[in-house]
Amino acid sequence: MYKFLIRPIFFLFDPEAIHHFTFSLIRFLFKIPGLSLIFKKTYTVEDKRLERELFGLKFRNPVGLAAGFDKDAKLFNELSSFGFGFVEIGTLTPKPQPGNPKQRLFRLKADQAIINRMGFNNGGVEEAAIRLKKNKGVLIGGNIGKNKVTANEDAVKDYELCFDALFDLVDYFVVNVSSPNTPNLRELQDKEPLTELLLSLQKRNNTKEHPKPILLKIAPDLSEEQLTDIIDIVSETKIAGVIATNTTISREGLDSPCYLAAEQGGLSGKPLTTRSTEVIRFLAEKSNKAFPIIGVGGIHSAQDALEKLEAGADLVQIYTGFIYEGPALIKSINKAILKTM
């Protein structure tokens, strides 16, 4: 029903406007008694064989919602009813910021893709922390970044502020240095500044009675040499794992009109399927599976998810595929995983 009735209507409207409308609609619907249970029964696959234990956490199934959809932690409880095994909120920054000027979100329907240059628009980590206190048992990842106005040499402090604010409220952290939409942010992926950032967070983490897993989210545009550096950095800093991958700045092979393809920002969706899987395979093989990998990028079908798991991912996340395919995608992936057992 989603792909043939709901999606065509939604796609008539501005992508960012319909995103906010959808949030309001879901919030309204879930206030109707019993509807949450109906969604859970419709989309959730309950099977012990789907459970995964990674970096000290138990995931009820390996399919999560990627960061960027619920940036401000406003809907994670409701979204978990669509069958997700975990939900990643953010990217959050210490101070609220509006993000980049609108229009900043574009559908490339011919490619089943999205270009966004949102720019870490969020209400700030403190507001999100208040909402996270109402968590009803959802496994939450906290994706953190720096404010646009913060210089790279001062970035560590921003990540530490977010880390401290969310520590008691999320199950794992994701360090986002790979978004293309904050000026100069990707420079933090270079070996020296990235190692410094992760060591600083780990030092803070290790002062806690129960340290939290810290993961690194990387871009799909890294060279093999840079990916090898990532493997070394994970080993040196002893972080829990890697999320591969974020959006791409590449526009290779697109079928959408030139005026759309030329929009600045990060590209997500089907054009990213192959590259993100290549990155996962490279990291898994070159590191001898030394650390867990969460695979994300271009998952629009159960087969796409299986290919990432076969390449070396331990868990997968969806975002653009969720928009194009609807909530039935989560159920189909989990059912496909069960069939491989």
TrEMBL record:
EC number(s) per entry: 1.3.5.2
Residues engaged in binding substrate: 71, 116-120, 176, 181, 246-247
Origin: domain of life: Bacteria
Principal location: membrane
GO terms for cellular component: cytoplasm; plasma membrane
Transmembrane segments: none
Pfam families, alphabetized: DHO_dh
Name of this chain's protein: Dihydroorotate dehydrogenase (quinone)
Gene name for this UniProt entry: pyrD
Reactions catalysed: (S)-dihydroorotate + a quinone = orotate + a quinol
Subcellular location(s) of the protein: Cell membrane; Membrane
Active-site residues from the entry: 179
Family of this protein: Belongs to the dihydroorotate dehydrogenase family. Type 2 subfamily.
